[in-house]
Amino acid sequence: MAEEPQPPQSTKAPPTLLPEKTSAEDRKAAAALSSLDARGEDDDAPAGKKEVDTEALGKAMRGWMSRRTGEERGGKEEGCGQVEQLELSKAKATELLKAHEGDAVKAMCAFVTASA
Amino acid sequence: MPQPLPSKENSLFKQVVKNYEAKQYKKGLKSAEQILRKVPNHGDTQAMKALILNAQGNSTEAFELAKVALKNDVKSHVCWHVYGLLYRTAKNYEEAIKAYKFALKLDPDSAQISRDLAQLQIQMRDYAGFVQTRMAILKSRPHVRQNWTAMAVAHHLNGEFEAAERILTTYEDTLKSPPPKSDIEHSEAILYKNTIIAESGNIEKALSHLEAVMKNSLDRTAVMEMRARYLLLLDRKEEAQKAYRALLDRNNEYRSYYEGLEKAMGLDRSDDDSIPKLTELYESYAAKSERVDAARRVPLDFLQGESFKTAADRYLRSMLSKGIPSTFANVKALYKDSAKRAAIEELVNGYASERLTNGSAENHDGDRSANRFDEAVLYFLAQHYNYHLSRDLSKALDFIDKALEMNPKAVEYGMTKARIWKHYGNPAKASEIMNQARTWDERDRAINSKCAKYQLRNNENDNALKTMSKFTKNETVKEALGDLHDLQCMWYLTEDGEAYLRQGKFGLALKRFHAIYDIFDIWQEDQFDFHSFSLRKGQIRAYVDMIRWEDHLREHPYYSRAAISAVKAYIMLHDKPHLAHKSLTNGFTDMDSMDANERKKAMKKAKREQEKQEKAEAERRDAEKKAATKKPATGADGEPKKEDMDPQGTKLAQTKEPLQDAGKFLSYLLEFSPNNIEAQNVGFEVFMRKNKYLLALKCLLAASSIDPENPTLHEQTIRFRRTLDKLSEPLPPPVAKVIDFSFTLIPSSISLSDYNDSFLARHSESTPHIQAGLKVRQLLDPSSQPRNEKDLLATLELDTTELQDAKDGLSLFGEWKSGQDVREAYINGARKRWPEATVFAGA
Questions:
Q1: Which of B71, B144, B694 has the CB atom closest to A9's CB atom?
Q2: Fewest beta carbons less than 10 Å away: which of B29, B398, B600, B803?
Q3: Is residue B281 part of a domain?
């Protein structure tokens, strides 16, 4: 629903602030709530049923985690005035411009002739 | 963070949650209100209340309350989770993802929130985000195999083959003892890993892995197919041959096995030296079984000349003597080759005359097999002469009548007869015959549907619905029509819409096209359930196939057909807004002859009339509602259905922004069917009207790469040039530059009229091209009209002119506002050439 903008709080909510200890009841309620639309994904596969080797798994986890390196790409926004002629979303327009060193004419030419 | 509640309220809160789960919304609402009386600003309770309201269908109210809840308790993950759930049911997945992310930050350990988030991310194809979330889930619950598999899927879809493979191997290595053979999840995970290895391009490794695991795999067929394919790719032909032969022993009708075997044997259908070996190969398979069709039919594809004739004779005789009705359908693909077409025609005509000469000699009564053969031959010939590549409708009619003499109530003969009349251009008679044939077997659903289709082609929307209703439940609100929507009966909705469009009933036409659009949305939506279901069932290969299929969903011809029609309708509505008003559309043209003032008055009058009608309609609905039983209307799934406030589509047709609305259909159309030239043609028309010249140009260039000689493209190219030359304001310099660079379809050295003349000269034998050329000539020089009319009239003499071309020609006279005498001359000419067609009969 496009007419439902994100409430202003959303930007203010401090992402690092985790809830401190809540009452046990609350936790349960939350857990219950969380399971509201649960589709029982892993309830069907209770631990132990398949003889999970916890120790081996733990080792595997450690090995796997050390291999992973956090990689995150951040998208830069660039101006893209003329490209709006093409009815593209801002993200796509930026992408297009980037691919052509920010040269609007080049980018638009490439776009227009893409299928030819 | 959630605010603590007094203990009484707290247990009430738990009750609310339970009530919601059990769909006891009224009870839940009551308890929630009870809590709120005591603790008015309790965010979690408000959130729960919002969730219940939403489930009851009060989405606006729910959103408002959820916002209040958030204001009261911005650090509650419950509130954020609910907010996400609301967005999810509203199908605003991007906002839902944001809300889930906040909820997750507040409660990082919640498995449910992470899982919901992961589902949304894969639904939105946010592969990078999906990888991250699945990673978090795996870290928190590594003991569940599903989480490892899902992690692999995430890497795989994100293009990280090695990481995906590694994840699966890592998990496998932790297994103490090999799982039992019956463990389907394990078997599927192993095969899934194998497909990842193959997709990464390392076929050698894929093969050795497959050979190591194949004896424990439960999907035997898949393993054998994969192995055969790998062997072929690795050029290990001997083994590949064996593998494909083993597959053919399991299924000797599967064409792609034969193709694999041919390749493995190094045979090439286009190479003359291969033909004897190919023949031998197929004969050996034909000899193995009396019943196998593929081994007998495939050789007809590659055999030529005399050997084709011999093989075709054998094939046709055996099929026809068994009286197999689909014989023609089995061989018509060969008709692209005119020599084969002629050979088949000669053969089957030969059978027919055999019958005549032998008829008296072996006149045993009750010789059923001979009768069966004769009948099948007649039916085959009727279809042959009805087929567009070998059409001779009077012969077709003759043969089908003879077949009907032998077997007067054969449904498929009736269908063919109706089809012949359709090709004659007489939809009324076609519909009538089809309906008659339908009565010969009222339990035959196939002909029932065909009958409805033919009724729609004849613009009998009501009759068609009645016909369809014989096979629908008719229990939903809108009865048969509602059922057909629930059943997603797209062919019907499309034909219904096109029939309305032909009658100028734009509202209803658009209504149907929007229904098609919505069905594709539903299909996209439907994958949601499988993000968890497939994992749970361990069917990962099928799941990945489905994800990929969904990505190409709107390539489906049903989509492009409805979308093109919808866009055309919107273009018409943009050009002539009065078409949206039913009372003004009689005859389509009378508005054109009015002056501006009269037109305005007529529009006003139409609007008043419509308001009156709407009021009457609303009253009727109210009365109906009162009369109906108290039971709320429900759909097939038992869920309450919202009442359609605009069943006639009036609001759709009276849009203020038809081009904007067309864009909805157009963007998917151009994205998924860029090689559909009609899509590019209608795209151009929309963009020109929106003054988006670059996009219009893109359509021109795309169309030109599909077919540089396309008639519509020719006309549009010239219009594009002329529009640019006549702009009142110059284009922004970069846009002008792009056009200068890219618009090279018309050489600058040549004048438009010379360009058009050479087009006309190039295509003097093709009516659609001539029509396009004449249209352009008229545009460039209105004084050329008499000449254009004369040339258009002459196209009726061309052998290649089809009935549809003649119809298009007639509407061209309308566009030019030609005089009555020219039109009459044209109509008389057309009537002479197509005496059975109804379009010219009453015109």
A1: B71
A2: B600
A3: no
Is the ipTM higher than 0.85? The answer is no
Give the CATH number of the domain where residue B7 resides.
Answer: 1.25.40.10
| Residues of chain B found within 8 Å of residue A105, distances taken between Cβ atoms | 734, 737-738, 741
Contact residues, chain A, for B6 at CB < 8 Å: none
Split into its structural domains, chain B has a count of 1
| Count of other CB atoms within 10 angstroms of residue B529 | 11
Calpha distance B613→B608 (Å, rounded): 9
Q: Give B122-150 as a DSSP string.
A: HHTT-HHHHHHHHHHHHHH-TT-HHHHHH
Residue B410 in this model has a pLDDT that exceeds 50? yes
**B593 band by pLDDT with thresholds 50, 70 and 90:** low
On chain A, the residues whose CB falls within 8 A of the CB of B182 are none
Q: DSSP per residue over B205-225, as a string?
A: HHHHHHHHHGGG-S-HHHHHH
Question: In angstroms, how far is the first alpha carbon of chain A from the final one?
Answer: 37
* Contact yes or no for B113 and A34 at CB 8 A: yes
- Whether B40 has a pLDDT exceeding 70, the answer reads yes
Which B residues, 160 through 199, put their C-beta within 8 Å of a C-beta on chain A? Answer: 166-167, 170-171, 173-177, 179, 183
A113 chain-B contacts, CB cut-off 8 A? 698, 701, 742
Residue A55 lies in a domain: no
B1, B110, B176 member nearest A34 (Cβ): B110
Question: Within a 13 Å sphere around the CA of B343, how many CA atoms are in the beta-carbon half?
Answer: 24
Burial of B22 (0-12, 13-18, 19+ CB in 10 A): exposed
B61 occurs within a structural domain? yes
Give how many domains chain A has, as a whole number: 1
pLDDT score of A93 = 83
Domain membership flag for residue A97:
yes
Domain containing A102: what range?
82-113
* DSSP 8-state class, residue B634: B
In angstroms, what separates the C-alpha of A70 from chain B's closest C-alpha? 10
| Domain, as residue range, for B86 | 1-103
Those residues whose C-beta lies under 8 Å from the C-beta of residue A99, and which sit 6 or more positions away, are A107, A110
Q: Which residues in A lie closer than 8 A to residue B70 (C-beta atoms)?
A: 7, 9
Joined together, the tokens standing for residue A116 give: 């030819």
CA distance B167 to B172: 9
pLDDT digits (tens, 9 = 90+) for B702-742: 999 999 999 999 999 999 999 998 888 888 888 888 998 88
Residue B627 lies in a domain: no
Query: Residue B453 — pLDDT band, cuts 50, 70, 90?
Result: very high
**DSSP assignment string, B666-705:** HHHHHHH-TT-HHHHHHHHHHHHHTT-HHHHHHHHHHHHH
Q: Which of A8, A115, A56, A72 is nearest to B176 (CA)?
A: A56
Tell which residue, B308, B372, B366, B380, has the closest CA to residue B337: B308
Q: Is residue A101 assigned to a domain?
A: yes
Residue type, B256: S
Residue A100 belongs to a domain = yes
Check CB contact of A101 with chain B, cutoff 8 Å: no
The predicted structure's pLDDT at residue A105 = 85
Q: How many CB atoms lie within 10 A of CB B375?
A: 22
Which residues numbered 19-48 in A keep a CB inside 8 Å of some CB on B?
Answer: 19-20, 22-23, 25-26, 28-30, 32-42, 44-45, 47
In this prediction, residue B260 has a pLDDT band, given cuts at 50, 70 and 90, of: very high
Question: Tell me, what amino acid is at B429?
Answer: K
Q: Is A20's CB within 8 Å of B742's CB?
A: no
Query: In this complex, is the C-beta atom of A6 within 8 Å of any C-beta atom belonging to chain B?
Result: yes
Write out the H or E segment, with its range, that includes residue B164: helix B161-174
- What is the 3 state secondary structure string of A47-58? CCCCCCCHHHHH
Asked if the Cβ–Cβ distance from A115 to B70 is below 8 Å, we say no
Read off the pLDDT of residues B153-167 as tens digits, 9 standing for 90 and up.
Answer: 999 999 999 999 999
